[in-house]
Fold this sequence. Notes:
Bound molecules: benzoic acid, fe (iii) ion
Helix content: 10-25%
Number of strands: 13
Number of helices: 6
Structural class: alpha/beta
Shape: elongated
Radius of gyration: 23 Å
Strand content: 15-25%
Amino acid sequence: MRTVTKDNITDVFMSYLAKDTEPRIREIMGALVRHLHDFARETNLTHDEWRAGIAFLEGCAAVETKDRHEFVLASDVLGMSSLVDMLHSSPEATSSSVLGPFHVSGAPPLAIGGDMKRHYGGPVLLAEGMIKDVDGKPIAGAELDIWQTAPNGLYASQDDEQDMYSFHGLMKVGADGRYAFTTVKPVEYTVPSDGPVGDILRACGRHPWRPSHLHYIVTAPGYRSLVTEIFPDDDPYLDQDTVFGVRNDLVMTYVERPAGEFPDGMEISGNVTDPFLHVEFDVTLVAET
Length: 289
Ligand code: BEZ
Ligand code: FE
C-alpha cells in the first residue's frame, strides 16, 4: 500500500496480516494496534513524547534482573495486572490479587501452627482459617504458600540482613482444611520506585505505597489455583493501593486479644507475653473445569 494516511494506517496494518494468521493473534494484534493508533491520534502524540515512551521501555529492560522485574511492576502500577486478574477471577472463589515480584519458589515447609515471626520484633499476628470449596466443605491436603515482608517493609530477596526464606512458608492443610500460623503484623511498604516506573509514578503525582498484606497462593488437586493477598481493614492505604490489588472480600479485621487467650498447640504457645492480633480468614477455591 503506497497511499498510507493517518486515517487508514490501522486498516493497512490489518491488511498486512497473512490470511491464515491464527485468529487469536489477529484479534489481539488488531485490537492492540487499533488502540495504539487511536491513542496517538487522540493525543496528537509528538516525536519527543513517543521517544520518551520508548526510552521508558529501554529503561525497564536496563534495570531488569532476576530479582528486579520492572516490566511486571509497570504492568502492576498501570492496573493491567489487576485488570487481567479480575477478567479471569471466578465470582464463586475468593478473589485473586497481584502476585507481585517477590514470590520465591522452594519456600520451606511450615507446619500447621508454625511460626514465621521468629526473633523479629513487632506484634504477633495469629492467622488462621479454612481452605474450602464453593459448598463450604474443607479441601483436605490443600497447600498454602505464604509470604510477606519483614517489619522493615522489605522482602527477603531485597534485604541482605534476612535469610533467603524469612517470612516465606509452605503449609499443607489436613483433612479439616484448616491452616494456622503466627507471624509479625505485616506493614505497609513502597514498591521499588528508584527506576523508570518510579519516574512514571512521580510524573503522575502518585505515591508508591501498598497497604500491608499477607500473600497467599492456594493450590489443591482438582481446583483452580488461587494467587491472592489479604489486607487489614484499618490500613491507611487500603483505598489507594498503588497496584490496585484490594478487593472487598480480601479485607479482614484484626482482633486484639490478651496474651492469656493465646491458644495451645501452636509453635509459640507459652511464649506469648503481650497482647496479640488474631484473624480468621477462609479461602474458597473453585473446581477446575
Ligand atoms: C507485592 O505485594 O509484593 C508487590 C506487588 C506488586 C508490585 C510490587 C510488589
Ligand atoms: Fe507484597
